[in-house]
Amino acid sequence: MSLLRDLQYSIRLLRKTPVHTATTLFVMVLGLSLYLASYTFAKVRDDKPMPFPDGERFVVLKTIAPLTGFDEWRGSNLDLYTFERLRSSSDNYSVLAAVQLSLATVSDDRSYARQFRAATLSVDFLAATQVSPMLGRIFTQQDAAVEADNVAIISYTLWQDYYAADPDIIGRISSINGQLHNIIGVMPQGFTFPIREHLLLPLRLGNALQPNQGGRASLAGILRPGVTLQAAQVELLTLVDQLVEEFPESYTPKEVLVAPYAQAIGSGINGPQNAGFMMLSFAYLVLALTVVNLSTLLFMRSTSRKQELAVRATMGAGGFELAKQVLLESALLCLTGMVLSLALSRVLVNMMFGSAAGRSFWETTELDLQTVLVALAVTTVIWLNAGLIVAYRAWKTAPGNLLSDSNKGSGSGGKGTASKVIVGVEVVLSCFLLFITGAMIVLLTRTAVTDPGTNTADTAFAKFNLSHLGTSDLSRQLVFVDDLIREVGELPGINAAAVTSAPPARSGRYGTYQLEQYLGTERNEELPDQSTIWVTNNYFAAIGVDLMEGRGFDSSDTSSSAKVVIITDEFARQLCPQESPLGKTINTKV
Fold first, then answer.
1. CA dihedral angle for residue 338, residue 341, residue 343, residue 348, rounded to 10 degrees
2. Which long-range contacts (CB under 8 A, 24 or more apart) does 404-409 make?
3. How far separated are the first and last CA of the chain, in Å rounded?
4. Contact, 296 vs 426, CB < 8 A?
5. Is the pTM of this model over 0.85?
6. What CA–CA distances, in Å, run from 61 to 55, 190, 214, 270?
7. Helix crossing, 369-396 with 275-303: angle to 10°?
8. Whether 341 contacts 28, CB under 8 Å
């Protein structure tokens, strides 16, 4: 019988059993597509090189929040003094850059203002990508001079959406955060950097930066050839420890990490427990259950054809022909399921990442050759696992014995033992899968229903960056904040307005605390690191929170008055478990 006739015969058999065929395809497509989607998700978020020259040496330098284990790279975790110290002393980087991420308001037309993701960054970091702008030029060292004119580079999307693809965009003067900027370049379509920023500004540093002055930044760099991540990390940790020793009032010990750029930006979590790793681990379990289920379905389908195979054997069909017929039917199912799984996995990956605007440009979700090969390998395992045993028995068993086995029915010992083993494995995997799924549901539910302690339904938040005011004068910054609160509070529908360094339920900067009355005694122990935020006087009134005891901040609390803090009830119990913390003095390092 020719291969074409065998294929036609297998298709007819599948059409005669639509329930079995549909069930098998459903199980395979669901399980394999979930695995492929998770595999692609993890691969995109892996430590792959950036799509630039020397892309494998692009790294980020970040600190780790002591309580949560989350990285603080996007939160501008180091000050510019630390950046300058590292840049002047390190030989490990061909480029070391500081990056400040924020939202910037573009108001080229006073009647039409919009906010865009913006990055103020070292000019040589953008040049290191070697990506040429579509229009205009990129930054030069002259643009980083303090006395230079304000310039900006915009993304293709910003140029299209806000400026309506103005062909004369180069040289156009636009208002960005209230200051006039000359637009000098438009980056190519799809290019957003350092993460998903559409507006780039040059970082300008003063000549005499002091500890904790000049603002904070996220650090990134390009390692020199031969420099390892471990060597760069040890160097950064050594510098952080030196700063703590030299300026104990300004710096606290930090856990640091130097990680590949794409992996660190994508994961957002320290160590291997990132989203991609967790999803891939979960998908491995789903894949194992899928393989077992499919193997069961296809194995039972193959064994149900024993009588037919026995009849064909007695009529002269050879062992090879019988084995080929058994494997061909399952191959058709598996290949069809693989094609459908690849299509569905593409949809699932897009759902995981959201729209293209919600991911970095290097996080491509196209199905590449590696993903197709993985799908083919998994499909082959399923196919062989399901049909190889029956095919081998059909090939090697004599026709008389094969016909005799087919008359024994489903109670044969070999088939019964195999069925029991398969069912047992299915039960174990299913129970484990249910346990993991339940744990994930509980975790996600608790995360989703976290109570921030305020009425968030009537609360709106907007972000701004004081570094874009063009001044480091604290008094001028405070005047801006006061004016902002007053103007926002006077808007229709606004009952109260306040400013904070972090909204409710979000962590701030971590620091260490000591109770002053125990300094020099046996109880001179640092309490666990605490998250610290800065707020304006009316913050608690604006979010509708009443203090349990004591008073809130007021106009008497200024930069020249005695320093005061408000602490949480949980921290109060740690600080003074047997008495009220009111009036106590603590030493802080934040």
1. -160
2. 405/306, 405/310, 406/306, 406/307, 406/309, 406/310, 407/307
3. 81
4. yes
5. no
6. 16, 25, 19, 12
7. 30
8. yes
Q: What are phi and psi of 79, to 5 degrees?
A: -85, 165
Phi first, then psi, for residue 116 (nearest 5°) are -135, 150
- For residue 93, the model assigns a pLDDT of 96
What is residue 535's DSSP assignment? B
In order along the chain (590 residues), what is the average pLDDT of each group of 10 residues?
Answer: 70 78 82 81 72 91 64 64 92 94 81 85 94 96 93 96 93 91 95 92 82 82 95 94 89 85 62 55 74 71 63 62 73 87 84 62 74 85 72 60 52 54 63 65 60 74 71 76 89 90 76 71 64 88 87 85 88 83 80
Q: What is the DSSP letter of 163?
A: S
Q: Is residue 555 helix, strand or coil?
A: coil
Q: Which residue has the tokens 């008389």?
A: 400
Q: How far is CA 280 from CA 263, 275, 348, 436, in A?
A: 15, 8, 14, 13
φ/ψ of 448, rounded to 5, equals: -70, -30
Q: Do 215 and 472 form a contact (C-beta atoms < 8 A)?
A: yes
| Residues in the chain, total | 590
Quickly tell me which residue has 């299915």 as its tokens: 426
Residue 519 class from Cβ within 10 Å (0-12 exposed, 13-18 middle, 19+ buried)?
exposed
CA angle (95, 97, 100) in 5-degree steps: 165
Report the alpha-carbon distance of residue 318 to residue 396 in Å, rounded.
10
Give the residue ranges of DSSP H helices in 17-115: 18-44, 80-89
